């Protein structure tokens, strides 16, 4: 299953990170997808889901969008190609947890001064995300 | 000799010290360093403050080590090195750096830290690397020694190395006041 | 220093600076602890949930115990009471209760910052102030300024 895009949206609905792994699509397409997915997430959150992993949010053409909402308000959006066989939820959950862990590491860096509206700028984070893209390249 | 100290260190760590949450400790240390960077706006000055802080902590820690173990005063530098590494570091950071690179006069050695918990999560800003910040510069040793970081993984080295050189032995150490 | 005791400086301006620095250090620690220890199996939905997270999970991380009592007026004020505040346990003073409490005050400034930092991470903007009536008891008052 190929990862097309990983995005992080803050609690105000603004993107603070977007990594496009797709050679054929402009970033703007994924910005749009992330944006519409956030609406779905907000809806899901009103049902008091206790799990951070929110599952499949929407299917758009040959792509599927999954969501994850941190307790501190940021949301992670994962865009993948439609799987050819049955997807194991645990696999998707694992990708989210790795992104979340990388995010925590960014915040925990003592020199990090990031505020809610700031974009994530960290070589370590970029590397972790790139590695996920490499593992799930097709 | 090394094994005996290793056992003492293990025992103290397991049974005789109250532990605090590791992240709380690491985050507090990191925030303190950053506060110093903001206050002094000069990485060399920060190194100096951390060194002073480390010294003041160190003289207290030595008392703590001695009161929790049945260790006598160290006879020579080799013994001191073992106690610092196997008992001191184990007791306060739960690591035991290896002792190596002795000078021929046995007055100087290196502590090699494969894993320095203070470094966890830390990514130094490029400026800090350039201007020579030694992030973990609190070497916490209460002897009249010169102690300095000479390598640090945060600055791109393979390992972290602390170089220790004996200048003179003192009987009594008094914490220096902040000036 | 010469007496072997660390005395509080008489100068209020100096004390104020110490407060600002300790509170700031605490804030940075709190922001990190919040992300690191934010629950993964349950969702904090409102301010009360977040304050409870401070009372239970955070207090465990900080002091290895939970706060003894939480009171709220349900209009944005929460009072956390710890009857055996860890950093006060080994303190004593020759000058009686009020003087001891005054001298112990700076020890509450770091936790004040930590609490404010944790709340901030969850989008709760608050002012945190400490009060000590007699050691080792300590209360922290959280006054919510705004919710994002």
TrEMBL record, chain A:
Transmembrane feature ranges: none
InterPro entries the record matches: Longin-like_dom_sf, Sedlin, TRAPPC2L
Signal sequence interval, chain numbering: none
UniProt GO BP: endoplasmic reticulum to Golgi vesicle-mediated transport
GO cellular component: cytoplasm
The organism's place on the tree of life at top rank: Eukaryota
Record-stated family: Belongs to the TRAPP small subunits family. Sedlin subfamily.
Protein name: Trafficking protein particle complex subunit 2-like protein
Organism: Linderina pennispora
TrEMBL record, chain B:
GO cellular component, one term: Golgi apparatus
Pfam families listed in its UniProt record: TRAPP
Keywords from the named record: Endoplasmic reticulum, ER-Golgi transport, Golgi apparatus, Transport
Predominant subcellular localization, coarse grouping: endoplasmic reticulum
Gene3D superfamilies membership: Trafficking protein particle complex subunit 3
Keyword Transport annotated: yes
Protein location: Endoplasmic reticulum; Golgi apparatus, cis-Golgi network
Protein known as: Trafficking protein particle complex subunit BET3
Gene source species: Linderina pennispora
From TrEMBL, chain C:
Record-linked CDD domains: TRAPPC6A_Trs33 (cd14944)
One protein family per Pfam: TRAPP
Gene Ontology cellular-component terms listed: cis-Golgi network; trans-Golgi network; TRAPP complex
GO biological-process terms attached to the record: endoplasmic reticulum to Golgi vesicle-mediated transport
InterPro entries for the chain: NO_sig/Golgi_transp_ligand-bd, TRAPP_component, TRAPPC6/Trs33
Domain of life: Eukaryota
Similarity field: Belongs to the TRAPP small subunits family. BET3 subfamily.
Name recorded for this polypeptide: Transport protein particle component
Provenance organism: Linderina pennispora
